[in-house]
Amino acid sequence: MAGDFGELVLVLGDMHIPHREAAIPEKFKKMLVPNKMQHVLCTGNLVGKDQYNDLRTLAPNVHVVRGDFEESTTFPETKVVQIGQFRVGLTHGHQIVPWGDPNALAMTQRQLGADILISGHTHRNQVNEFGGRWFINPGSITGAYSAVESDAVPSFILLAVQGAKCVTYVYELHGDQVEVSKSEFSKASSA
């Protein structure tokens, strides 16, 4: 059931546990408590099954797509989930070339018929509008290094969705301080 914030959606990815990082940072673990969110959307690269089981304790609706380093091959390449009035597309992002490119992301978003496209792989968090559509990248929740980001900042994103309105909260860990930035957008009405 949604509260005052609407439906709360945890968006995360690129854990790379245990190969690149040992665990989710303790400051983040304390914030991610069960039964506060309605959805978890993960861009993949959990790597181990334990991480998936941990995500399943956080929310009743957990959606994970396959990353390029996934041990499990049961996760789909892409997924579309309806949250509020938004069709949310989910993909890892290694399939989108060039990685993180706005035009390439827009093409994937159109193929999925999504209002919001969530992708990872770059390990850099972003919330961007391009061509009237929204693109979200949660970065790496563990701060794991990648081919394009050797010094990634641990991050995740929380969405608060109320009907056609979405508020994003980007959480970044800098040293022992969690910094939060906020933005919001609305789905254009089809008048």
Specify the CATH architecture: 4-Layer Sandwich
Give the class-level CATH name: Alpha Beta
Write down the overall geometry.
Answer: globular
Number of helical runs? 3
**SS content category:** mainly beta
Oligomer: single chain
Let me know the largest β-sheet.
6 strands, mixed
Mean model confidence by pLDDT? 90
User: SSE order in H/E notation?
Assistant: EHEHEEEHEEEEEE
Helix content: 10-25%
CATH fold label: Purple Acid Phosphatase, chain A, domain 2
- Main β-sheet, spatial strand arrangement: 3-2-1-9-10-11
Please describe what this structure looks like.
This protein has a single domain, classed as Purple Acid Phosphatase, chain A, domain 2. Helix content is 13%, strand content 36%. The model has no long low-confidence stretch (mean pLDDT 90). The longest helix is centred in the middle third of the chain and has 11 residues, at 102-112. A hairpin with a 2-residue loop joins strand 10 (165-174) and strand 11. It is mainly β and 191 residues long. The chain is globular, with a radius of gyration of 15 Å. The chain has helices spanning 26-31, 49-56, 102-112; strands spanning 7-12, 39-42, 61-64, 78-83, 86-91, 116-118, 125-130, 133-138, 155-162, 165-174, 177-186. It contains three helices and eleven strands, in the order βαβαβββαββββββ. The strands form two sheets. The chain has a six-stranded mixed beta sheet, with helices on one face. A five-stranded mixed beta sheet has the order 4-5-6-8-7, covered by helices on one side. InterPro entries: Calcineurin-like_PHP_lpxH (IPR024654), Metallo-depent_PP-like (IPR029052), Phosphodiesterase_MJ0936/Vps29 (IPR000979), Vps29 (IPR028661). Pfam families: Metallophos_2 (PF12850). Keywords: Protein transport, Transport. Residues 9-148 form the Calcineurin-like phosphoesterase domain. Belongs to the VPS29 family.
